[in-house]
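Q: Here's a chain of 212 amino acids. Please give me its 3D structure as tokens.
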Amino acid sequence: MNWLNSEAFTLFDQHIKWSDMIGNVIGLIALALGWRRSIWSWPVQFLSGVILFAAFATAHLSGSAGKQVVVMVVAVYGWWQWNRGKGQDGSIAVRFATWRERAAMAGAAAVGTVAVAGLFFAYPSLSWDPWPDAYIFVGTIVAMYAQARGMVEFWFAWLLVDLVGVPLNFANGFAFSGFVYVLYGALVLWGMRDWWLRSRKAGQPVLEGAPA
């Protein structure tokens, strides 16, 4: 399996690794399936997580590698959640989160980022970039949880993760991840529009203080 971490080619003076390229192409497919509200988004995300975990773990990027563990765990949860809620066409209904859910996710993201960054600072061998690694780690948990629950906010969360993930990947030698995350940004905007419109057609308004 060492070939996965070998160089595939050079692009704009950036060395592209096989694992970086393959894992992120599969991740793009998973995001596109998520846009289409297909339950197959989850096993594809799981496969992407396995490949990228191997890549980041070898490079000692513990936060990014840990993020892939989260991807795999939440992929299993998302598969189960969407199986329960899918319609006759195999897709799920989407909605905006309630204000309570938004506050809970924002609070969890803030507290989680501080806690994980503190862990990385306490054990420097776990991460070369504690704050961005912690931000990406926790932000991915929040984004994928929102996706599993069919929340439109899932797309907003991914955009916020990408704002840090793109420069971090370029800085640490994962150029293909950086390029692909730019494509993620475009796909996220299209997916956000689609889910937004579907949530309005579904007639599921956000109610202040409604239960999660």
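Q: Can you summarize the key feature?
A: The longest strand covers residues 7-11.
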